[in-house]
Write the structure tokens for this entry.
Amino acid sequence: MGPLDLLLHLLNFAAPAACVALLIASASRIFMKKSPLAYSWWAQAAINFIVGLVTLTAGLWFFGRDGKMASYAALVVCNATSQWWMLRRG
């Protein structure tokens, strides 16, 4: 595997975490208007992205391969929990 292939594999591994992090941070601005925001939008997205990467890495370690639906379900649950926690801190 060359360096370009490795980069593409890493980007494809991180893409679901990035998409979910951006969507959850954006949706919280739309649907949770009355909540005081503890962090800026970028900080919320970055924290959710890190939580998502940790969750997907744990799923890769636990199952031995990437792309299991249980890992993606855990990604959504962990990101929603971290977003809820960030909004409740404010």
Observations:
- The CA atoms of residues 4 and 10 lie 10 Å apart.
- The mean pLDDT is 91.
- Residues 3-31 form the longest helix (29 residues).
